Protein: HTH psq-type domain-containing protein
Amino acid sequence: MEEKTETGEWSTISMKTAIDKVLSKEMSYKKAASKYRVPQTTLERYVKKIKEDGEGTIGVSLGPKKPLFTTKEKDEIVAYLKHMEERLFGLTTLDLRRLAYQLVVRNGKAHNFNTDEQMSGVD
Structure:
């Protein structure tokens, strides 16, 4: 018989609302978690990350993979790609995968990319 759990069964919108209420000091962690039906420890972790970094990625992560790039870094990559497109440089998906690999290596981030081919995976 399978054990029923509620892991990952909260919505991103509920979490964002709860975070806003805690950051604006309208509610405590416990009240916000109860009202918006999100895990209190997860709420505390997200609020702490936002206070430290100024940003945080909100989402249900049920696996070992975590995003390598922050939202700011992703925006910079998109801006670079648009800039290259305006200059009529036709970049392929392989070029983008190589660029992602170079950025991860240059920033000293831990990764599991193919070091022989020096490019990221398809996803």
About this structure: Residues 30 and 82 are 44 Å apart (CA to CA).
